[in-house]
Amino acid sequence: MVKLANRMTKFSGDDLADILRYSLDPSVISFSMGSPARELYPVDAIREIVDEVLANDSQRSLSYGSTDGWQPLKKAYLEHVAKPKGVIASEDEVVVTTGSTQGVDLLTQILIDPGDCILVESPTYLNTISVFKKYEAKLVSVEMDDEGIIISDLEEKIKLHKPKMLYTIPTFQNPSGKTLLVERRKMIADLASKYDMIVLEDDPYCDLRYRGNSVPPIKTFDKTGHVVLANSFSKTIAPGLRVGTMVGSKEIIDAIILAKGISDTNTPILVQAICSGFLERGLLPDHLESMVPLYLERLDAMLEGIRKYFPAEIKYTVPEGGLFVWVDLPDTVNTRTLLKKAAEEYKVSYVPGSAFCVDEEDGIHSIRLNFSANNAEKIDEGLKRLGELLTKELNG
Length: 396
Ligand SMILES: Cc1ncc(COP(=O)(O)O)c(C=O)c1O
Description:
Layout: H1 14-24, E1 29-30, H2 43-61, H3 71-82, E2 94-97, H4 99-111, E3 117-121, H5 126-134, E4 138-142, E5 144-145, E6 148-149, H6 151-161, E7 165-168, H7 182-194, E8 198-202, E9 227-232, E10 244-247, H8 250-264, H9 269-280, H10 284-309, E11 315-316, E12 324-328, H11 335-344, E13 348-349, E14 351-352, E15 366-370, H12 376-394
Parallel strand pairs: 1-13, 3-4, 3-7, 7-8, 8-9
Antiparallel strand pairs: 2-10, 5-6, 9-10, 11-12, 12-15, 14-15
Bound molecules: pyridoxal-5'-phosphate (PLP).
Pyridoxal-5'-phosphate binds at residues 34, 99-101, 125, 169, 174, 202, 204, 232, 234, 239, 244.
């Protein structure tokens, strides 16, 4: 038996293994995974870009590259992704990462000593909870309402815990689908300056908007270099490319580059060149637009199915974009223990809310449902099954 390092004892893979197993079972309708719709990957455009890169720049694109990122991608990101959102930065304030997951890991690595406090939303992205645990942070959750983080609770917890960092997913949050109000975004930037706290703004879903108007990132209100914005091409081009970006003060970005060099030298140039080629050709806006009808149809099928089949006592979010809907069930339903029955008897799966909460009891009556991965018909059928189970549970 291998004796693993102590840090591995903080993670139990059991729950996640069950979730993965159920979602891979073809007889189960799975609302568990967070992937974009695979049929939307821009395969033809990627093929053309790869052909061109290999024809014109094969040696550079297959070599080691500079740790901070492929310069054409940094330039194209700033021009085509950051600037339209009002984020103005220079190339030395950007680093390209191997997915935004790596960015979250590296920022935590350079900032957090064991015992340092990080404030997180409740609920929040489960993978990031694990990253923070790996670095032995003390995690404190901040309350949210329908418009995101509650500012009075945030300020109270800043004063009490003196956190080094706040982690927020402000737009179409994973898992809740909620979007933080513009006014609160400004307040968070102001609080970060006032209390000298770093804000990690993890915003991979902001471009997946199907209704309503876009909202400026917290980073646009940052006057003192306290906000670090993480974006990703996983949901807008394809997750398998593993390309993300971080924008922050030069001091923070330099430290991230140092840590990244130690970790993986550089993100592969070929995948960075795919992303820069995609942006330089001006393909992103039309591609995002082309995704809207399919995602909107699936989102609406999910909202309709919840209304039709779920018991009346539930509460659910109505997002304008992203990939997830969050459902709060009455206190008598334990969604963690119910998952086995849902998957094995009713052939439908979800992620129990407890997986997204620092204090697991917080999410025990909730579920996250993904609407991007199934067509409208399957969504309807899956929710019918789940609704039947929930109704039975509630009626004893
Ligand atoms: C909030 C959040 N951050 C980061 C990621 C991961 O992004 P990437 O594929 O760029 O590592 C996800 C993916 O599901 C996410 O939901």
